[in-house]
Every structure is written in C-alpha cells, then in structure tokens.
Amino acid sequence: VESEEGKGTRFIMKFSFPVSLENQVREKEKQNIPDITEKLEGKRILLAEDNELNAEIAETVLEETGIKVKHVEDGIQCIEELKKMPEKYYDVILMDVQMPGMNGYEAAKAIRAQKSSRPDAGEIPIYAMTANAYTEDISAALNAGMNGHIAKPVDAEKVEKTICSVLGSQSEQ
Questions:
Q1: What are phi and psi of 95, to 5 degrees?
Q2: Phi and psi at residue 29, to the nearest 5°
Q3: What is the dihedral of CA 43, 49, 55, 59, to 10 degrees?
Q4: What's this model's pTM, rounded to 2 decimal places?
Q5: Cβ-Cβ contacts under 8 Å for 153 (sequence gap 6 or more)
Q6: Contact 136, 105 (CB under 8 A)
Q7: What is the pLDDT of residues 147-166, one digit of tens each?
Q8: Contact in structure between 45 and 142 (CB atoms under 8 Å)
C-alpha cells in the first residue's frame, strides 16, 4: 500500500492462479455435453415465435440436444396447440413476446387462466424470449405469469442450462 496525502492511495496485489490449457478447457466442456443431452433427450418444447429465422435458429439449437420442438407462430396458435395435446405433454413453453394476433404476455396470461380446467396450465414453465432485456421487460414477463426471461439473440448454452434447471427441478418434485 502506498498512500500520499492529497494524491491518493495505491494498492498493489499479486495473485497466483493455475493456468488452464485450452485443450483442458475443451475436454472439460465435452464431458458436460452428455449430461445435458441425457437430461434433455426426448423432452418436448412448444416454441411460439413469429420470426421464421429466429424460430429456425431456436429449433436447431434445441433439436441438437435431442429436444422435440413444436413451432407455432403466435400466441393464439400456442394456446390452441396446448389445448389439443394431453396434459403435461409439453415440458416447457418458449414464448416470443412481440407477436401478431396475441402477444406473448397475453398468451401466458390466457394459459395460466386455464388452470381450473387444465391443472398443467398453471404449472408448465413458460419463458419469455425477447430482445427486450430491461428490468421492466423481465418484470412484465413475470407479471404475465411467465417463469423467466431469455434474452435474444438466443444463447444456446443459456437456453440449455435454463431448460435443464427447470426440468431438473420438476423431476425432484
């Protein structure tokens, strides 16, 4: 520590960390991939996304881990798809927020409102997927009955970890 009145204080600290070689990091990442794939293999996700390119990217990322994806283009189609399938058919809903017809917030509220006639409507995890990632956007998603928020552009690793976390907590119940 060096300190001089009127000039300030200077702290100098030295830390020693082991250096990880790049190939060791890659090997560690490869070891984690089977764990994620095993957890996600065969799970079903309902993807509500009106932008065809965003939908294609999300589908590709999800299907690479063995997830089965059903894509719909707006909130109305999302609700209809959920209604026609048996309870607990879908494990997670990924919902774009800005869609024509019925936006993601309205769709989430409508899904949650069905819980008296369809108990899984109150339980199914719904995650907003939107480029709007401000605190108020996250709050709006939660207030609409969604479980969380995933910012676009979609980060494959974050989506996989989020879904693994959700599905892991479901299997513990």
A1: -125, 115
A2: -65, -40
A3: 0
A4: 0.76
A5: 57, 131
A6: no
A7: 998 888 777 778 878 888 88
A8: no
